[in-house]
Records
---
Amino acid sequence: MNDIEALLLLMMSIGAFIMPFISRKLYLPSSVGEILFGLVMGIFFKEAVLKTPIVKFLGEFGFILLMYLAGLEINFEKIKTTPRRDLALYFGMSLLVVIFSFGTANYLRQPPIYALVYLTTAIGLLFPVLKESGLSHGDTGQSLLIIGSIGEVVSLISLTLFILYFKFGFTFESLFHLGQIIAFIAIAAFLRRLFYLAAWWFPRLSRSFFAKGDDPFEGGMRGTFVNLFIFVALASLMDLEHIVGAFLGGMLFGLIFKRRESIQRKIGSFAYGFLIPIFFIEVGLRFDIKDFIGIEVLILATVITLLVFLIRVFASLTLYFSSLTIFEMALVPLATSFPLTLLVAIATFGLEMKIIDKSSASAILLSAILTALIYPAMFKILVKYQKKSPI
């Protein structure tokens, strides 16, 4: 490690430590504060960051852990007890978001990639917001996670199909990659069955995952990371996004092991204590503030930010027929309107494939920041108001 790398890691560690305190005072999610800290760091260290691969590695590792924990947090027992009508309405809302997004992009005569921007849902930032709001383990938080997870699966499928189309068109190679995706899902289902049988036939092995402080070798943590990287490696080998593998790995772990609180605490303290804050700071470091200067960029980013929310407001009206309360219905559009990480991926892909120009990519990146600043703050204010004056 050279001097620049050591200095950058020191600055990022300081930011990861102090930003939660500052963000709390400003009523912002700590992840948004960390992104802003990264933006400020980028003014002074932009050139140094480009020559420092360790920062990118730690950021990607943090993102992988964030998606794994998001998948691990999904309570499948809650899904099983969720009325089928509710699940059908959740899926219906996600499909309406897709339809409205393509209709909006077509009406505004925008490239199809803007439909992806409007429809994208991600729970990477939702999970920390729920955690900070004290809702992550309650019925409201679980319902929002289920809705967000369905939306994220729909978003990942849409993004994958979009990438296949623009890379290969309607060709045999595109069908081959589509077959790889289906094969990955089939392998994931097989591994789930394999893990389940192993836990059934070797209960002592499964109990080692949840040992409470009496395992000097931390076998549970080691096994969890093995599970994580099995799916990350499998996704990478099949030319899929590694975050898809991480998310599926966490979901399958949670599906097999119902009593997983101890391992969640251990891996969560490690991830949220360092790697996930590093990821959010690294996201800020990717941006250049100068790219956001310009009336056209600001107007387009504002329009995108508003449309992302309005599309979900209209789509969520279907949830009136679900068992959600009015308060929970009001939270749904806010909880699904800040797809920060996937918007960054879409903007990067669109620019690399020359689907959009640099100003459009900058506007999408700026809207990612704006949605991450505005809607989580509104979400927390609404939750705080409801706790003081229950609806």
---
Amino acid sequence: MDGDLYEKSGVEIIRELGQRYAVYHKRLGITQQEVAKRSGLSVFTISSFENGSSTGITLTSLIKLLRSIGFLEEINKLLPELPESPRSLFKKQNR
């Protein structure tokens, strides 16, 4: 995504994600019809997400879309597990 994410609205970010998703499945040689079949979502939903006309995609739908192209593990990058806090480590050491 171009530019500073914090300056973009949620709608702008979702539109860019939709455009990027289209590039991904096309490069993988997967059609919208195949994505629909794999994800259980309609071609209309997929097309609307990709062309930016629908910016209210649910997290459940995004998970289905990522799964359909074999990129579900990327969801971990949204909120990676945090390392244990220094305070918690200190308390464990002093038990």
---
Amino acid sequence: MPRTATKPSFSLADANRTLPLVRSIAQDIVTEFGHLRSVGRERRALEASGAHDDATRRKVDELKGAIDEGASRIDGYIKELSELGVELKDPERGLVDFPSERSGRAVWLCWKLGEDAVAHWHGMDETYIDRRPVDSLVKRERRAAEDKGE
């Protein structure tokens, strides 16, 4: 995978070679994020209950500490992804984008936890909703090359 001064540009093969590690990190993020949501709901419910006894305050403080620790773990996971050159786009779904280039255009190769391989892409100014199968990109690149007479 060629590296530039700013960030790596992944070929489809590079992205798929990196995927086992990315998958593991994304799974950790999704699990931790789900736990944080649950703990946050519990804390808000206790705070909204109006109970101000010592046991409730201790429990709220304990939950706040758990939230801080979980957020710190997620930050660490995001840093790991960043060091690999990829970006987390959605911690709830485990959506990750790999920077790439196609026909001179910067694009994202797009993968979501649960998918077997990196097989979609979208433009830098687009989102997950706009993603298309990689094979459509390959076909478009072939047509462009044929039009140029290559």
---
Amino acid sequence: MQTNLYLKYGSRVTSGMAECMYDRVLIDPELSPFFDGVNIDALRDHVADFLTVVTGGPNMYRGRDIREAHAHLKISKAHFERLIVHIGAAADDLNIEVDDAAAIITAVRGLENKVVIN
């Protein structure tokens, strides 16, 4: 029986990933300006809820539509790629297996066209 990532890792892959990723993003000089004035604790909660869904857990996400939430930010492809690097590093810090981290990154990459300004 194969288990989903939510059951396999529990909060490590949801709130842990959100915590670790934002710890990295907030010290990244290219990405941190996007978060000036943002309630980071609330954002971490939203991302943890999003990761719960992505990893096979219950749909608890109550945040705004992803396209709407990012439309005003002018996020470039380069910014998005920096975020992907931080997600991978967070997964590594949390001892998430490489294939499982790749599955999470693939899910996030699926949102690129809703986040990146062309």
